[in-house]
Structure formats: C-alpha cells, structure tokens
Amino acid sequence: MNLTVTLEAVHEARTRIKELIRRTPIMTSESLNRMASADIFFKCENLQRAGVFKARGAFNAVYSLSDAEAIRGVVTSSSGNQAAALAMAASSRGIPAYIAMPRGALESKISAVRRYGGNIVWVESQGAVPTSEEYEATAARVQIETGAHPVHPYNDPRTIAGQGTCALEIVDERPALDFLLAPVGGGGLLAGVSTVFKALSAATRVIGCEPEMADDAYRSFHAGRIVPQRNPRTVADGLRTSLGDLTFPIISRNVDDVVTVSEEAIVSAMRLVWERLKVVIEPSSAVPVAAVLEKKVPVAGKSVAIILSGGNVDLDHLPWRAKSP
Question: Beta-strand (E) ranges in 124-243?
Fold first, then answer.
C-alpha cells in the first residue's frame, strides 16, 4: 500500500466515490456571523451518507480494493461513526464488514452499524474507555480469524484521501478563505483537508480543534512528537482517539495550529447550531464552533469555513437535557 497522501490521491478518490456519496451543502447563518463578527461557512458533513464525513474515506477504501482483496470483507475499529460508515460501504459492495466496538458506544451508533449489516465484535478494555491499542488488538484478531482486509479509521492513506474530498468541494465554492476549522481526533479528516488546502489555497490558515479533556493532538502538535491519548473524558466521543503515525506528520507539515475548547463551550456550541442553523450536529462537530465562541481563533473580520463533521446523536441523552427546566 502506498503510504503517501497527495493531492492527486484526493482527486482520484473524488472520481472513485462521486456517485457513492453526497456533495454536502455549505450553509450560513446571519445571526452566527454577527456573534463571531465573521463570515462563517458551514460545510455540512452531518448531512453526508451515514450522517458523517467518514463515509468518504470508507467508500474510498472499500472501492479501492481488488475483487480478490474484497471477497473476505473488511475490518475496522470504531466507537461508532467509522463503524457505521464502513458497514454501509461494505454493504453497498456486497461484502461483510467486521467492526471492533466498545461496549460503551452510544446505542444510536450501535444501532446504525446493525442497520447497515455490520458484524460487531466487542472490544474488551481494562479501563472505562478502550485504548487505541485495545481497539487495534481486537481488529487484528478479527483479521486473522476471518481474512478480512483491514481499513484503519484514520491512519490509512485511502481513508485520508477520501476525507480530503470534502476540502475539494469547499475550495470549489469558497476558494479564498482566511481560515478552515476542523475537529481532530485520530486526524484523518484534518490530514486530508489540510493536504488539499496546502496545495490549492496555501494562504488559508488550517486550524485543528480539540476538546481540552482529550487534548493529545494539541500536545503532540506543540511537542513535535506523538503524545498518546490517555483517559479522555469528553462529551465529544468521536474525538477520543490518538493521532496516528501517518496522520501526525501530515498534520505537523500542513496545519497552522491546534487549539482546545472546554466541555461547556462544546455543549453550548452544539445547541447554538441546532437553534440557529436548524441542523442536527453531534458534540464532535461542535468543537470548531466552540473554538470560535471561545475566541481561540482570531476570526473577526475574516472568512471562515467550519466542517460540521457529523450528526449522529443519541436523542435520548442530549448533553443539555439535565440543565433544562
């Protein structure tokens, strides 16, 4: 497998998956613009197939396989969004998908995997939240048992190139941005979109946004080496993973900064987007919005694209319900 991720690879991914995914809309809100004193353009990957940007990487990975590689299926590890996306992509090609998931995953995301026909294998953990090593060990065991082809949720060039197609669509519509803000967990999305912007819009400052309570990307970026994630305790469940040895150097090379935000700001931003933009986003999607609200990025007077990465929410356990009258 080619371990480089280039603009050419992203263009090839776009051609490969263009009939399989949605070209998601870019939305604006006058009230949010006034609050931020900026022109903000929301790339709505929450309206993507499977409700998440990860469909792009999943379809690219599945449809990159030869028939001989694909016949035994694919395997990945995920707390939910990658799981559902890969299960859907595999189903569309008529091959099995094996998903290593934690028992504590949101019920809405477990249900989505089952709805798309994925085969769930539970990750056993020594702690409350499985580590990256525990996820990967489970996926490796399944690979040996089934012969399924591994598709890493973020540390895979096919995944990264697929995620980067989101940025090509942004550049098509908004070629002269001052900032691009994206959430960062394992780094597949940020690595992919930063590759595109570095090549096509180098003046745009690309900012990774992360919870304070799961800040390995922030610490890694500023230390110049991978600092593993330990005991993340954030409501943004999609951002609890550590950077990979493929995503980290791409992010180090192409990203201008990584900032962190509070849990309170994440919940406030999530609710604000529901109220003002009239779309459903999950906590991980709200993290870059929170970075604007907490003024972690100097966006006043600037044009800003924010990737709303997903909209898969457990509606029975909304993070602000306990505070509601």
Answer: 149-150, 179-183, 205-211
